[in-house]
Amino acid sequence: MGPGCLCSSPSPRIPATAPPPPRRRLHPSPGCALPGPGRRGKGRLSSVSGSRRGREAERATASLGDAMALWWRRCCFSRAPAFGSLRSLLEAEGPRLGSGSRAGRAVGGAEMHYFLGRSTVLSFPKIRSIFLRFHHTTTSRTCSCSKTVTDEKFKDPFKLGRKDLKNLYEDIKKELLVSTAELREMCEYYFDGKGKAFRPMIVVLMARACNIHHNNSGEVQASQRSVAIIAEMIHTASLVHDDVIDDANSRRGKMTVNQIWGERKAVLAGDFILSAASVALARIGNTTIISVLSQVIEDLVRGEFLQLGSKENENERFAHYLEKTFKKTASLIANSCKAVSILGCPDPKVHEIAYQYGKNVGIAFQLIDDVLDFTSCADQLGKPASADLKLGLATGPVLFACQQFPEMNAMIMRRFSLPGDVERARHYVLQSDGVQQTTYLAQRYCHEAMKEISKLRPSAERDALIQLTETVLTRDK
């Protein structure tokens, strides 16, 4: 079935649709009545006949949909503390879905169906299709067999960015030239070409999209490509340091640097990669770019400290989790996108578009990563499953599951340190709708990223960045 099929079954691992109904339904808050057709006339239309009955039913259905959407917004998030804080957080910092747009109504309908226990919801590809038609970026036609055919100009991002990423890892290794053979081997260990190169891909596509928006030039400048290289180097250095902090034994399907060479040498290797990235950054010779990308390093450190701590107050946990997620993951993508936009276009509005796109995609990427920790096996991930629980971390699926199983609060506060805590917590998460809720939140961030990038002039690169949001949601490793 096509990506826009309304009746297609979601992936058993990561649902690409809005989540199915929770096992334990959230009830409306006191004093808030569930809207329904039976308020007047006891829910019957027996006095209406023929065509009039049909028209009345259609009007009742439409008004019921609006009422249910309104009820959902007023009631469902007010039931649980974390949902309430999440709602206010999303209003202040996260995706703001306009209720007046077609896309906003589509997502609102998906939310409504989810909380009212309906099974037929709009899939993410369908929401994307509606959104694209609304912004006139591509054309779609839906046939009677529910297959959606999309315009060919909607490019595969990895094919489109391949030219600019050719010899990426060879160029990174040139930045890491050292006389000591062991240090060189350690530093080059993860630059073997087997990574996803997700961050450099976003950076070069954003560079092209911004260049086209400014002066219709699709070529990536040398300084913009340097930002892509620097982003991958900073990311890899953070992985080396994370593995030391977490005492990890596998990464990308092979042993970690700290397991092979020891923790002390691993720390030094990460430091060296970071210093080489700083030298490459200084070589660009733009103080604004240096300031923007230096913020990434500060955020990485602050994010790690946030991860080492925890919040006793349930209302603050989700805000703490999302702030940590931004600093550790999304900041690098957001600021790298902003850097190439500065190099390619003088308009501050474009800089903000690039930053917001990177921020929202980066948060969605990490949310799905946290989902995969519960839904994928170690062979697929290239690292141990349930690793976050074993490290004492309460990620999105755990925080959502805690609303259905309050007994998890004690485990969260003791960081799953007692025997059996990890297994019990995993069981609760899989029994709850935590995975689906986290996936749905990632969809909302991707929707916001789509809305931002669609403000740029139409181009194949811009469409590829939109396509990339779906890739983030449907990946399995």
Largest sheet: 2 strands, antiparallel
In order across it, which strands form the biggest sheet? 1-2
- What's the number of extended β-strand segments? 4
Instruction: Enumerate the spans where pLDDT stays under 50 for 5 or more consecutive residues.
Output: 1-54, 56-153
The oligomerization state is: single chain
Strand content: under 5%
Structural class assignment: mainly alpha
Cα radius of gyration in angstroms: 24 Å
End-to-end Cα distance, whole Å, is: 23 Å
Helix content: 55-70%
- Specify the overall morphology: globular
Number of helices, counting only DSSP H or I runs of 4 residues or more: 21
What is the mean predicted local confidence, pLDDT?
75
Order of helices and strands: HHHHEEHHHHHEEHHHHHHHHHHHH
Describe this structure in words.
With 477 residues, the chain is mostly helical. Helix content is 64%, strand content 2%. It is built from 21 helices and 4 strands. It has helices spanning 50-79, 81-92, 102-115, 124-134, 157-160, 168-175, 181-187, 198-215, 222-246, 257-261, 263-284, 287-308, 314-344, 348-375, 378-381, 387-390, 396-404, 408-413, 421-431, 434-453, 460-474, and strands spanning 140-142, 148-150, 250-251, 254-255. A two-stranded antiparallel sheet has the order 1-2. A two-stranded antiparallel sheet has the order 3-4. Strand 3 and strand 4 form a beta hairpin.
Entry summary:
Helices cover 64% and strands 2% of the residues. By secondary structure, the chain is mainly alpha-helical.
